[in-house]
Design goal:
mainly alpha, two-stranded antiparallel sheet, 2 strands, 3% strand, rod-shaped
Length: 200
């Protein structure tokens, strides 16, 4: 059987065309709602894209809010480093302060609201300070990774949805053309049979 043989083409078309009972194959279905095992509609594709978008915005907010304590702890860590280094320290240790009120975490009238000198040095030397600093960094990095993953997933989801819509439209156009061609073929065959019958 050669490549251009009509029989081989028919065999290839059998694989790609829907069966004769006009039930489309899985790739030829229109995008429909997601249905679970008890036949209850969950979400349509555009609702699922919208939900993913809202989740992405929510995680973007979490990422932004988790960056604030990382920034605060980084400033405290740098100040603690300056207190331990007498060469970089131009003032006395008692004049070095960290004012938490300037970050908007606590109100301006909070007392004391700032840690200076030996109090700040005691805070810097605790293991909880470094542990919480590293945990905030991990939380911020995790939220950032989640935002990147959701944006990537949203792009893939939107591209797949657009591809399916385009593929369904092309499949319908192909089915219309095929139906017209089949109808024309039947018309030609019936006319040729009528012509043969009229000659006999």
């Amino acid at each position: 059987m050669s490549v251009g043989d009509p029989q081989s083409i028919k065999e290839i078309l059998k694989v790609f065309l829907p069966p004769s009972n006009n039930i489309p194959s899985r790739g030829q279905h229109l995008p429909t709602s997601t249905i679970n095992s008890v036949d209850v509609e969950l979400l349509s594709p555009h609702e699922f894209v919208f939900l993913t978008y809202i989740l992405g915005l929510g995680w973007l907010g979490i990422f932004g809010f988790s960056a604030v304590p990382v920034f605060l702890f980084y400033n405290m860590w740098t100040t603690c480093g300056a207190m331990k280094s007498p060469i970089a320290n131009l003032t006395s240790v008692d004049n070095i302060c960290v004012d938490v009120r300037q970050y908007g975490i606590i109100p301006w009238n909070a007392n004391p609201g700032k840690a200076c000198g030996s109090t700040l040095s005691d805070i810097c030397n605790t293991s909880e300070f470094y542990l919480s600093y590293h945990l905030y960094i991990v939380a911020c990095a995790g939220a950032g990774a989640t935002v990147i993953a959701l944006i990537h997933y949203l792009m893939i989801l939107a591209a797949n949805w657009a591809y399916l819509k385009g593929a369904c439209q092309q499949t319908h156009a192909y089915q219309d053309i095929k139906t017209r061609d089949d109808q024309e073929l039947q018309d030609v065959q019936s006319r040729s049979k009528e012509g043969l019958n009229s000659y006999s």
